[in-house]
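sry for the spam today, last one i promise. struct tokens for design, 395 residues
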């Protein structure tokens, strides 16, 4: 891959002003530009600019650093001061940004190749690395920019680089984060964040959407419900009528502690969508709110295999989340919400979720709009398995 990328960069430099490297979160864009910068240097090219490696504490991503590719000097770039609900956005360090822009300004005077890792919504709105990037664009150097796939066209148009070679790195990661990262994120959210009733950004209308989605579930006293990603119990408590037995699963022990404090009678278990620590066919309804989007697309179908496994045959699930009907609608929402959009999250399309549920064997699967950005997907475990292949429940 390293040789391929070097060859592509040299070929691009022969005929274009710049090249763009793209790929989803976790595919290794920064690792790729660091390797490429070393390879270009071995070709006797003067390489400058910035890379933004993760800042890890105890194995967890807590932010990003910014590295001067010429000197190796690094500074903190951004961090998550209070991760979790209602937004996981990063806070940028003015010193880190000033350092990065100074590095880019120097590179415009000294370098033949300038790397800018990475160009994102902050730059598209005129902040972040924009001053340094503008200077680099005005220099004769060859530019290597990294950005997320959804931003490629916008970044190229913004930088006046329409049509420059663009290379997509790797595949989508099999999981958005590790279980330990998810626990860390939501343990911190449970400790620091209030209940997201007055939510903004993609969670706008949270409480109304929960109330509307709750009407999609019919449950009678004496029956049992399961809420996956229960958090503090916000969805379950809107669905449960007196006499209903409520069970909840969540990967975050701190969320479960908070939930238990608010609802001492709930039966709570540590676990996650792909391995529900509950028996087959035990529930008369399965619920989930604002948790499904923490899965990677490859995990959607196995998650529904678990949901249908634990439902009693003939009974229904209702899964509420931030969903979109088209990629265009998702992109429009990102633009409208601007800074309130969370770039760390991937919100699925309703059709992807419906298809995953059907592939896992659910029937009568249907999307219901319950808020501006919120949809509930309902479906039923059939009385006898449908012919489509079903995955066995996760161990
Ligand atoms: C935005 S909160 C929503 C909590 C609650 N359902 C609500 O509507 O207020 C997301 C919840 O999903 C949980 N979560 C994250 N990843 C999960 C996974 N893979 N499986 C199950 N729950 C998960 C988090 O721990 C957190 O409690």
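last one done:
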């Amino acid at each position: 891959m390293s040789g391929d990328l070097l060859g592509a960069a040299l070929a691009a430099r022969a005929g274009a002003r710049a090249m763009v490297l793209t790929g989803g979160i976790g595919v290794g864009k920064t690792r790729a530009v660091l390797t490429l910068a070393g390879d270009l240097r071995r070709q006797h090219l003067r390489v400058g600019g910035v890379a933004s490696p993760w800042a890890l504490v105890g194995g967890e991503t807590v932010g990003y650093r910014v590295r001067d590719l010429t000197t190796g000097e690094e500074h903190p770039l951004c961090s998550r001061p209070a991760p979790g609900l209602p937004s996981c956005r990063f806070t940028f360090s003015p010193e880190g940004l000033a350092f990065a822009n100074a590095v880019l300004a120097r590179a415009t005077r000294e370098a033949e190749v300038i790397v800018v890792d990475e160009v994102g919504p902050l730059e598209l709105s005129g902040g972040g690395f924009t001053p340094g990037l503008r200077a680099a664009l005005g220099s004769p150097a060859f530019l290597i920019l990294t950005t997320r796939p959804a931003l490629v066209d916008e970044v190229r148009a913004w930088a006046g680089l329409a049509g420059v070679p663009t290379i997509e790195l790797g595949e989508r990661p099999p999981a958005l984060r590790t279980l330990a990262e998810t626990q860390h994120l939501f343990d911190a959210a449970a400790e620091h964040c209030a209940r997201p009733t007055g939510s903004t950004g993609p969670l706008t209308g949270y409480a109304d959407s929960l109330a509307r989605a709750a009407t999609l579930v019919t449950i009678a006293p004496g029956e049992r419900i399961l809420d996956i990603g229960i958090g503090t119990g916000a969805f379950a408590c809107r669905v449960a009528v007196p006499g209903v037995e409520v069970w909840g699963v969540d990967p975050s022990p701190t969320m479960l502690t908070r939930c238990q404090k608010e609802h001492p009678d709930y039966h709570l278990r540590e676990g996650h969508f792909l391995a529900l620590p509950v028996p087959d066919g035990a529930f008369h309804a399965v619920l989930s709110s604002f948790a499904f989007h923490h899965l990677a697309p490859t995990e959607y179908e196995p998650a529904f295999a678990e949901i249908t496994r634990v439902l009693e045959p003939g009974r229904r699930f209702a899964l509420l989340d931030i969903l979109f009907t088209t990629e265009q609608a998702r992109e429009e929402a990102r633009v409208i919400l601007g800074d309130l959009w969370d770039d760390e999250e991937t919100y699925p399309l309703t059709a992807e979720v419906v298809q995953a549920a059907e592939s896992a064997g659910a029937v009568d699967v249907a999307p219901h709009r319950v808020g501006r950005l919120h949809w509930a997907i309902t479906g039923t475990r059939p009385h006898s398995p449908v012919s489509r292949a079903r995955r066995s429940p996760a161990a």
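The chain has two domains: 2-168, 179-380. ok im logging off now
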